[in-house]
Amino acid sequence: MALTSESTTVWTGSLFEGSGTTRLDSSKVAEFPVNWKARAEGEAGTTNPEELLGAAHSACFSMALSNILTEAGHTPESIQTTAAVTFQPGEGVTGSHLLVSARVPGLGEAEFEAFAEDAKVNCPISQALTGIPITIEAELA
């Protein structure tokens, strides 16, 4: 059975002077302000689509890596993933870089990197982002 997750954005005004809010409807856990300045230059207290995409990518990747490791008999103690999504005005989203650190008892660095590469390729959000380069740096903590 497929699960549909919903979010809603309400925008007022022009792209450059306007602003909006993005609400996580399915979970009802948050509502975020959004505007162009946050997207093009960064603005404290205001998010942007790329930050939200990075949140989705880092969460999905961490879950995929945990599953791959556990199925191989290496249950992780912890996984920390940062997804840095790059946006270039006029070009769009140009890449996502995953920075991963994990504690996995009994696993060597080379084997861990292979599992991380597998998770990068097979995580559903990575698969949805096939139009952009996805890079990864993975290491054991």
Automatic annotation (TrEMBL):
- SUPFAM superfamilies linked: OsmC-like
Q: Which GO terms describe its biological process?
A: response to oxidative stress
**What is the source species?**
Agromyces binzhouensis
Show the Pfam families listed in the entry: OsmC
The name on file for this protein is: OsmC family peroxiredoxin
Give the molecular function GO annotations. Answer: peroxidase activity
